Task: structure prediction
Amino acid sequence: MASIQVDRVWKRFVLKRDRPDSVGQLMVQMLPWHTRPKSTPFWALQDVSFSVGPGESIGIVGDNGSGKSTLLKILTRTMLPTSGRVAVRGKVSSLIELGAGFHPDFSGRENIVLNASILGIDRRTILKRMDEIIDFAGIEAFIDTPVKYYSTGMNARLGFSVAIHVDPEIMVVDEVLAVGDEAFQRRCDERITRMRQSGISFVLVTHGLSSVERLTDKAIWLSHGLVRAAGAPRDVVAAYRGSVERN
Amino acid sequence: MTSIDARGPRVPSARDLVRMASRRWHSLRIWLELIRNLAVRDVETRYKHSLLGLYWAIINPLITAVIFSFVFTVIFHASSKPIPYVVFLLTGLTFWNLFANSVVSATGSITGNAALLSKLYFPRVVIPTASAIARVIDFLFALFVLAVFIVAYHVRIYPSLFWILPILALQTLLALGVGYLLSALNVLYRDMTQLIGLILMIWMYLSPVMYPIGNVSNTIQSILLMNPMGALIQAERDLLFTGYLTQAPYLWAAAAWCGFIFLAGLYTFKRLEPTFAEVL
Result:
């Protein structure tokens, strides 16, 4: 069974104003009279801990820039924490940024195969599920059009549809679902509920506070990289709402 | 179980090794397939969407060979006896271009595929590998042009040409090594793509692509052949037109270079890999 354990994770970004981003700048910096401006460390996550048991789902709320996306990147292993430990047990599937894993020049169909192989599913298996994926996304008419011509909503639909069809044990979903229309969001809600019942864990980042209450077992509220509140979704959401209203 | 901490994935205990091995094999298969998928897409976008793709693969080496042979035979009176200079040059260019184009493609591959990186972790090395491998298709087109020239000029070729395959394998190893190194550096220093054009130009003139190695003094000859690409191109041409290796000892050095540069490139890439997500 799948589980996630995040243990005292810190993530530091160094805002190096002087990081040379070309060989030319690198050479300029080697000049003896070149003085370096100070770089300021920035803690995107500070001592964040939580755990998600098998079949459990967690919602993460917080303002923009509070560290939610950084946390998700660490969970999907695209980023390493500065200190602390993350243990992810089980096969992860993710829907993080719009268009992540899509190649703009390839058609929807080609991108399904490409995306699935990034998510660890081989070609034969995914071809068998092709119709199902296209069907759930509801974009049959455009499936052979290059993805760069897709609308934001179509992009999210396709991304979500692939992500749920690769036999995940853990689903990591960022805000992206909010761009789908009412009907699609309802379909996603329904599917998420069904997947949760079959024991799949969810990590859900969203500004749609009602969906946190509806779809998760517990929640944490991140603020400036710190966990401000953790516990039952309703309480966490209420606390977060309260702080937003106070400002 | 995947364990992530500040030092990266952990070393597993001996007990898990058997299970790890079978999972490793499974994921290796998946990554190989990802390489294939990316390479196929790379080639497809190049040729499906534009006839210009064909231009790069066929017309480019053709025009270069014609111009160079005009300059070198008519103006400079270069000779590459017993092989006609056009064929001699086109052979060198065909093999050199495979190397150079692979390196150039690999260099820009990570920065050009940023969207693929943010989805989920997979060994990033897959991306430059696929870009470099995709250039083999261009090479096949160029090889076809070369074959036409060989036939048209009635140049004698030898059955030893099949030994070119292991030489090509070495050349690919070298291209991958250089490609890994530069693609990782290109994430940090974006002008690497500019620099690589310059480096490749110098490298080409220091390899016997446009001139026969026999025309220069022994000292310079041995310097040129210590360059792995020099020895490889010499070997490829020898196997095609001479029937045996004229510079065999240098080939061993080249093989060692290829292995070393491949491993060094891979190692640097792996070291820089964790910074990609933060810089891109």
Notes: DSSP finds ten helices and one strand in chain B. The two ends of chain B are 28 Å apart (CA to CA). Residues 31-279 of chain B form one domain.
